[in-house]
Amino acid sequence: MSTPDFNLLVTLDVLLAEGSVARAAERLRLSPSAMSRALARLRETTGDPLLVRAGRGLVPTPRALELRERVNQLVQDAEAVLRPVEKLDLGKLVRTFTLRTSEGFVENFAADLIGRIGEQAPGVRLRFMHKTDKDSTPLRDGSVDLETGVVGSTAGPEVRTQALFRDRFIGVVRGGHPLSEGEITPARYAAGRHISVSRRGLDTGPVDEVLNPLGLEREIVTIVAGFSTALALARATDLIATVPERHSANLRVGMHSFALPLPMPTFTVSMLWHPRLDADLAHRWLRGCLRDVCATASPSWGGERL
Question: Is pTM beyond 0.90 here?
Answer without folding.
Answer: no
